[in-house]
Amino acid sequence: MTSIRTCESTCIGHPDKLCDLIADTILDDLLFEDLSARCAVEVMATKGRIIVAGEITSSVKVSIRAAVRRALTRTGGEGAFVLTGAGDQGTVYGYATDETPEYLPLPLVIAHEICKRLDAARMEGTISGISSDGKSQVSLRYEGERAVGVAAVVVSIQHTQPGRNTAEPSIDDVIPVGI
Q: Which residues lie below 8 Å from residue 163, measured CB to CB, with a gap of 6+?
């Protein structure tokens, strides 16, 4: 039976990943000074505003603002401040598989690698004029449980400068030979 499986990944400045990075930074700051700390923090980013809410139980106080600033610096500084609203929504599901050494679906592993390369290209200046907010979507064609071809690869990245840049060199060698 033929089917198409699609997975998506996001770059470091995408709002979803940015919010996770901020929450992780806050938790890291707490645990660095208090291994008994408990932290239940949620982060929301929208149109130039970041909201951090939740509960922290700890013997130390950490600077939430400093943690947010460090996370923003790590993304290139502009992540949450260029948001214009969600342009797509979807249903997310996950499963473990022996299809890859990571126990993740192959389309997801490829999508992660594309985003990792886009993040590196932005940081190294290999591709100029791109922001840290981007995503990749990979659709593979399957015969039974075996990936046999590429149905589609979509890469979307915000630009900081007008003009056309291409991420094609980042994609070609990510797709395994034979599919």
A: 129
Count of Cβ atoms closer than 10 Å to residue 106 Cβ: 21
Query: What predicted TM-score, i.e. pTM, was given to this entire model?
Result: 0.71
DSSP 3-state of 161: coil
- The phi, psi pair for 139, rounded to 5°, reads -115, 120
Compute the distance between CA of residue 75 and CA of residue 81 in angstroms, rounded to an integer.
Answer: 11
**How far separated are the first and last CA of the chain, in Å rounded?**
17
- Report d(CA 91, CA 68) in Å as an integer: 28
140, 5 Cβ separation under 8 angstroms: yes
- Give Cα separations from 131 to 134, 138, 167, 171 (angstroms): 7, 21, 13, 18
Q: Tens of pLDDT along 27-44? A: 999 999 999 999 999 999
Query: E-assigned strands of the chain?
Result: 2-10, 38-46, 49-57, 130-143, 146-159
